[in-house]
Amino acid sequence: MPVGIAALLHTVRILLGFGRHLAATAQARSASPDFNAIAACFGTGRLSAIFAHLQRGLLRAAALERVLLARAARGRDIHFTAPRERPATTPADPPAGQPPDPPADQPAEAPAAQPAEASVARKAPPPSRPPGWNDPELFMPTPEQLEAQVRRRPIGQTLVEICLDLAVVPGFCTGAFWNTLFDSIRLHGGSVAVLMLEKVRREEAFAEEQDRKPGSNWDWLEMGREAFRRVLGFFIGEAADEPFDPLPGPRAAAVATGPP
After folding, report:
1. Cα angle at 128 between 163 and 116, to 5 degrees?
2. Where would you tag: which of 14, 175, 216, 235 has the fewest CB atoms within 10 A of its CB?
3. How many CA atoms lie within 13 A of 159 on its CB side?
4. Nearest to 148 by CA among 158, 138, 156
5. How far apart are CA 4 and CA 11, in angstroms?
């Protein structure tokens, strides 16, 4: 098994195991007074919406697993790539190839007329998506569609989408697993900032939902990590050997620690 793929499979299979565990137990755990700490990460307490997200997350994680295994079967590994950093520019130091701005008392030159062919060659806008296209309650993609998405997107972006559907956040993970997941996202073209911003948005949506619900309380805002453990039964990454990571063989060398 190529080392880079083994590291990603280790992470993906832990996510798969957690998602399956939560999907199998969410109905019973929803009666727990601590369940709102998890529901807030989905942005709603409606079980139908939570189960829809869990189903899509599991399908996407399984699709990523298939793509990784197929790549390994061809003898190809996946390597880390350093995150892009945009060079900082200032008004006094315009980007290369761009003339400096004219003085304030000098009128700017009129832009050159564009040839007629240029306007014709402009790309047509992408087709609009139907309302609710990203709501798994309304549109559940097929495994084939998800696998096609995984193949054409950066792996880090796919990991972020899996985490969003499975409500994986730092507070639910061991420190070691979150660090590995963080690096796997960042070094494979994803953005942890997207994950954290959506977490905040969902918490705000959940708070608004609770405001409209008679008898609701705000205890979920002050629940600590032990409250999460009471609901989940474990932190993600704690049970890495069984049953959440069936990958055989030693894995220490495959843990993501940075670019080679």
Report:
1. 125
2. 175
3. 28
4. 158
5. 11
Tens of pLDDT, residues 188-230: 999 999 999 999 999 999 989 988 888 777 676 667 777 777 7
Q: Which residues pair with 93 in a beta bridge?
A: 90
Q: How far apart are CA 120 and CA 140, in angstroms?
A: 37
**Three-point CA angle 62, 67, 70, nearest 5°:** 125
- Please state, in angstroms and rounded to a whole number, the distance separating the CA atoms of residues 55 and 58: 5
Closest CA to 73 of 82, 61, 81, 65: 65
pLDDT at 154: 94
| 83 touches 186 (CB < 8 A) | yes
Q: Which residues of the chain have pLDDT under 50?
A: 85, 87-91, 118-120, 240-260
| Counts of helices then strands in the chain (DSSP H, E) | 9, 0
Predicted pLDDT of residue 15? 96
| Secondary structure of residue 173 in the 3-state scheme | strand
Scan for tokens 């309650």, then name that residue: 137
Contact of 169 with 199, CB cutoff 8 Å = yes
Nearest to 207 by CA among 31, 22, 29, 45: 45
Domain ranges of the chain: 3-81+133-254
Residue 59: both structure tokens together: 């399908």
